[in-house]
Amino acid sequence: MKFLRVKMDELKVYTEEVPEKYQKLAGRALTSRLICDEVPATCHPLGPKAKLFIAPGAVTGTSAPSSARVSVGGKSPLTWGIKEANAGTPVAQYLARLGIKALIIEGETKDGYWTLKVSKDAAKLEPAGDLVGKGLYEAYHALKERYPGAGFIACGPAAERKLSMSGVCFSDTDGRPSRYSGRGGLGAVMAAKGIKFIVVDPAWTSPVVAENRELFKTGQAKLADAILTHPLSKPGGTLNTYGTAALINALNEAGGLPTRNFRTGRFEGAAKISGERMAEVVKERGGAGMMGQGCHPGCTIKCSNVYPKPDGTELVSCIEYESDWALGANCGIDDLDAIAEMVWHCNDLGIDTIEAGVTIGVAMEAGLLQFGDAAGALALFEEIRKGSALGHILGQGAAFTGRAFGVVRVPTVKGQGMPAYEPRAVKGIGITYITSPMGADHTAGYTTAPEILSVGGKADPLSNEGKADLSKAFQDTTAFIDMTGYCLFIAFPILDIASGFEGMVETVNAVLGTNFTGADVAKFGGEIMSWERGFNRAAGMTSAHDRPPEFMRYEPLPPHNTVWDVPDEELDKIAGN
Amino acid sequence: MVQVRVYLYATLRAFNAAAGGDTGAEMEVPDGTSIADLYGLLGIPEGHVKQAFVNGRRQDPDYVLRDGDRVGVFPPIGGG
Q: For residue A556, how many other CB atoms are within 10 A of its CB?
């Protein structure tokens, strides 16, 4: 394995041996460690001292199931703290097969945008040329023709404008611009370096083989068995049949589906935007539509989808729960076709669907348009596309937009928009949002599993009791999983099936040459989190940043009419502030 | 008798067209009917239900239904 260091001020690519201290790290553990070691915490995220790191997970590229995650890390222009955002994409596997432990992009160029081409034994920069400024659908279509068989990484037109809601886009199995390390504005960091596209060509490479083949085989079989038998992740299970949007009705029933900019916890239009409805539309319209699409070869869960137009041709891939909620219930919009169109715009502009939806919700709160106005919401994407002053305000995210228009009800933590679970109705996930070093992030410690889904035990979502410990345990364990390269959805089977958990650890040990025990998972995850918190502290963050938006403390949320009442001391226990 | 509104979700919708629709089904059930009894009345075979929410709170199968309850019934559900 090697590091590829791209020095944009020299326009040169250097191949480096991986220093020993990084050899047993991968994914989030590696990007976060490198950020701490190489990025001055007080630097401007878009300035010359900032860097972007792209690292596949530990077992990515092997035959381990559902393991094609890639972590993107840097200092976030949205939160101004540390950021890791990961995506599931075949490009993750290509990077691992090419022996790339991490891509490190540093410095900056004033000489336009560049394309980095990476293939077996070669890496070079060339001008990005005619594809600069284009929407990513057009760009990826052109790249597919020019580089058949390759995968792509890009930042979109929104990133070229340095908008803080821009993500880093990876191609899917069909070359669509649809797999995102979306959160925290890392697309803008990529653009600020002067890199527009990365072409990753896996030709003449082979799958990664574990150092300890026997142990790998044992672990792989245990994990595969857990994934294939658990009712959530098995073929024909709910993830496979209805996609992640199966959660719309679940959160709605539980009164925790944030609706109209976090005014209520139930949406009367939930059924119309549910995963169940989506599956019906796909079946009725036929054609290109499909549920059960895999985001990479080797995934057996296959929770992605292709949403069709009324005539059966493709509208967009894919509508995730978070996107569906953000652009739907959160904006009072109950029209799946309109939501699908907005997701298409997000993919094309290169922006995070969650931040986009939360921002539009805040714009509706500000009175720029009415809740439920799908046409008005679509028009806002045009403002971002053309780069108007309004588009620039919106493109900087929900917190910035709220400030620009004097809005008090702004659902953000550390400047990042909250995802699709209401903290006042699901307390544990609220603690995760508030205390994660990443800003409001549901994936950072998904206590929703026991609180709402009854996976990994049961916890009362409305109770505060034990929730700080629960969130901490989930956050620590997740930091480890984000290192492995496994999809976070393996958490559902391994929370319930102990042998699956063992299998995960064994495969990681087999590849990295580590000796992690089951007990080490949360322990080492906690260590990763302590690095990340250390960076944030050095960047100027304190316990004052581990706090909820104030309105949640005094506005009761229907239908349960609860407020945020977790004591601040409980929050501070997590970070040790 | 008590009146309840019942919603079946995801794979459970197939077991009862009325309760599986978007608006759920208004049902009149005898006093003392539990959630577990309700599954029988709806024709849901054992082993398919993961959990039920009543008026937004997760309740055990032995919960006795009250007049005006909103009941949402789910198979194992996940996402994120």
A: 10
**Angle formed by the axes of helices A518-538 and A498-512, nearest 10°:** 70
Q: Which residue(s) pair with A348 in the sheet?
A: none
- Note down pLDDT in tens along chain A; length 577 residues: 999 999 999 999 999 999 999 999 999 999 999 999 999 999 999 999 999 999 999 999 999 999 999 999 999 999 999 999 999 999 999 999 999 999 999 999 999 999 999 999 899 999 999 999 999 999 999 999 999 999 999 999 999 999 999 999 999 999 999 999 999 999 999 999 999 999 999 999 999 999 999 999 999 999 999 999 999 999 999 999 999 999 999 999 999 999 999 999 999 999 999 999 999 999 999 999 999 999 999 999 999 999 999 999 999 999 999 999 999 999 999 999 999 999 999 999 999 999 999 999 999 999 999 999 999 999 999 999 999 999 999 999 999 999 999 999 999 999 999 999 999 999 999 999 999 999 999 999 999 999 999 999 999 999 999 999 999 999 999 999 999 999 999 999 999 999 999 999 999 999 999 999 999 999 999 999 999 999 999 999 999 999 999 999 999 999 999 999 999 999 999 987 5
Contact B10 A455 (CB under 8 A): no
Instruction: Report the alpha-carbon distance of residue A303 to residue A281 in Å, rounded.
Output: 16
CB nearest to B76's CB, from A231, A254, A442: A231
C-alpha to C-alpha distance for A480 and A488, rounded to whole angstroms = 10
Instruction: Please state the domain extents for chain A.
Output: 2-200, 242-401
Q: Which of A69, A229, A234, A238 to probe by mutation at the B interface, max B CB count within 10 Å?
A: A238
Place domain B2-74 in its CATH homologous superfamily. Beta-grasp domain (3.10.20.30)
- List residues bridging with A82 in a β-sheet: A75
Q: How many CB atoms lie within 10 A of CB A346?
A: 31
Chain A residues inside the 8 Å CB shell of B8: none
Give the integer Cα–Cα distance in Å for A195 and A126: 10
Q: What is the CATH number of domain A2-200?
A: 3.60.9.10
Structure tokens at B68: 């005006």
**Alpha carbon of residue A328 to chain centroid:** 19
| DSSP helix/strand/coil, A102 | strand
Kindly tell me the burial class for residue A396, based on how many C-beta atoms sit within 10 Å of its own C-beta (0-12, 13-18, 19 or more).
Answer: buried
CA distances from A429 to A349, A441, A467, A487 (A): 29, 9, 9, 19
CB A425 within 8 A of CB A266: no
Q: Evaluate the CA torsion angle A46, A49, A54, A58 in order and state its sign.
A: negative
| Contact: B51, A454; criterion CB under 8 Å | yes
Q: Which two tokens stand for residue A134?
A: 């284009």
B15 close contact with A: CB closer than 8 A: no
**How far apart, in Å, are the Cα atoms of A552 and each of A405, A421, A549, B6?**
19, 13, 6, 31
B80/A442 CB distance under 8 A: yes
* CA–CA gap between residue A68 and residue A488 (Å, rounded): 11
The rounded distance, in Å, linking the Cα atoms of A183 and A172 is: 18
**Cα–Cα distance list, A149 to A63, A204, B51 (Å):** 20, 11, 45
* CATH number of the structural domain A242-401: 1.10.569.10
Is A183 in CB contact (< 8 Å) with chain B? Answer: no
